[in-house]
Design brief:
By secondary structure, the protein is mostly helical. The chain has a domain of 44 residues. It has 4 helices and no strands. The protein is rod-shaped and about 165 Å long. About 4% of the residues have low confidence.
């Protein structure tokens, strides 16, 4: 089966050396070598070279660690004071940023509230417009119905007036005939 991805992960292998493996418990011979290394330090803490005139890295490291453990009051107190001042400065800066963020949050919330109120008003207006349109249509229907009734009424009034006139004329004709 072919793949679109290169197989570099499968092909590239690295060898581990003995130093890459995790440390194991020291053997009895290593313990004696360590004892020899420690015995090379004299009482003042200075290195005593081994048979070949070299000082081991272990001894150098031990002396470095011993020199670092010496308390230096002025340096550490200044460092702590500086660190404290830096921390206070950072806290003040963060507090001001927090205040700014809170103010920005309040302004954004008020803007959001205004926008939602506008949308509510628009929605209310649209519902009012729809109801007004329905009312307008209903009123237009009533007006057109009333106009039709007015036309019918005027026709009825005209018919009624014509009938009154005819009735009056008939009454006159009958009264002339009866004389």
């Amino acid at each position: 089966m072919s793949s679109y991805f290169p197989r570099t992960k499968d092909l590239t292998r690295t060898r581990r050396s003995v130093t890459d493996s995790p440390p194991s418990s020291p053997s009895p011979t290593e313990k004696s070598f360590r004892h020899d290394r420690l015995s090379r330090l004299d009482s003042s803490g200075e290195n005593i070279p081994d048979r070949l005139g070299r000082t081991s890295s272990y001894i150098r490291r031990e002396t470095r660690l011993a020199s670092l453990n010496k308390p230096e009051q002025d340096i550490t107190s200044k460092d702590y004071k500086k660190m404290y001042a830096d921390a206070l400065h950072e806290n003040d800066r963060l507090k001001s940023r927090l205040q700014d963020s809170k103010q920005e949050l309040v302004s954004i919330r008020s803007q959001l509230e205004k926008v939602t109120q506008r949308q509510d008003r628009i929605a209310e207006k649209s519902t009012l417009l729809e109801s007004e349109k329905k009312e307008k249509q209903a009123l237009e229907k009533r007006v057109s119905g009333m106009e039709d009734e007015i036309k019918v009424l005027t026709e009825l009034k005209m018919d009624n007036q014509r009938l009154k006139d005819e009735n009056g004329a008939l009454i006159r004709v009958i009264s002339k005939l009866s004389k």
